[in-house]
Amino acid sequence: MSSTRPRPLAAVITVVLRAASAASAAAVTATAAHAQSAPQAAPPAMTAHDSLARDLLRELIAINSTASGAQMSRATQGMAARLRAAGFAEGDVQLAGPDATHLNLVATLRGRDPSAKPVLLMAHVDVVEALRTDWTMDPFTLNERDGYYYGRGTTDNKGGAAIIIANMIRWKREGFVPSRDVIAILTTDEETSQEAGIHWLLTNIPRLKDAEYALNTDAGGLKEGDGKNRPRFFIQSSEKLYQTYTLDVTNRGGHSSIPRPDNAIYTLARALARLETYRFPVMYNEVTRASFARSATVESGQMAADLRALAGGATRGPAVERAFRDPALNGNLRTTCVATMLSGGHAENALPQKATATVNCRIFPGVSAQQVQATLQRVVADTAVHVTLALGSVPSPASPLRPDVMGVVERTAAEMWPRAVTIPIMENGATDGLYLRNLNVPVYGVSGPLYVQGDDRAHGRDERVGIQNFNASRELWYRMVKGLLGDATRM
Q: How far apart are CA 322 and CA 241, in angstroms?
């Protein structure tokens, strides 16, 4: 491992951009650390700010804001009441949505320049289903055990909501006046269609579309260091496009005692075999190259050399071949498509009249779903196989690595985790941020409740977040926003 101290991220970005050729389509990078390590060290003594965030998290976890529980508005109404009690004016705390179940919270901390574009702070309060019979504890009660907070939404994403509201209250109470308006957004429909959440807000509250940029608690993460490895703090500045396709083969079928060569299942199987071996072309963009360059500084040996080659834009050669054999790296270099579901036939003694495969693709930003559809049709190389879009997706272009944002995030992360190296990434999962990116509003994912590699429980059984990392993340966001927007605290 190199002992050389990495240069500031803005400098790395400058070097990478100078080296970059004008154009590749779309991309992103390294493995997002969306997981919590174990065991978690006992946290230091709680501050009043930690206690407030914990109380907010407890209130949110107790609300069943799953699709079946349908209590999303209870969560946003509760946070609105907390803000009003802290001194926010009625007009600065807005609850808005398409129906009574989906009242999204839009709360404004007024800045010094009302004409300046606002900065958005984002989280969502809806969560995926959680059955008590699946868990070792009640998923809708905040449980504190062994240095962790347990409960549905602790990491995805009620922890982020609690952190934003706790800091909004703290800033208000201490008289912090940012350089521009800060708008906290808690959405109620991120885990399902997103139509009643961020999409509805952007359609009905025009000012949000004019934001300078957004900071999203629902992305990014932390890989904790040890005696040999430095901590890695990930900031998400891009997302892949999630798109599903169906591959269908139909024919007249017949009796199984008289097989024919045009069997629909065999035809589909041959098409899937061709898809399995196909590699989409290697692509790079600003985020990809900066990520590989910075990651190379904390690796050693062959991995460091390969990452430097990727940062330089290699499209073939040994480094690319080794990356192809690493699923995480391969996913950061190209669009990927994989068969995920399969069905066919209607009776055991009949030739199949239909065979269908579901293929899920994660597409680099800048490449359209229609382009990938055309590629799939070409790769299967059989007119009997029909490739169709299952659902249309919303584009999500990569956000520029603004030095004024990245530099503050890097410095703040290093304050919280000494020796931490900040790495920009692209994540494969989708968040509310894609709708803003599609409107040319940059979005930067800085995890609210920090996810640490090794114990990913988001959407799963006994979801949890380390108490120490939860408190550190709250403090990170407090300092980060003040660093970005100017510490003008009234005395």
A: 25
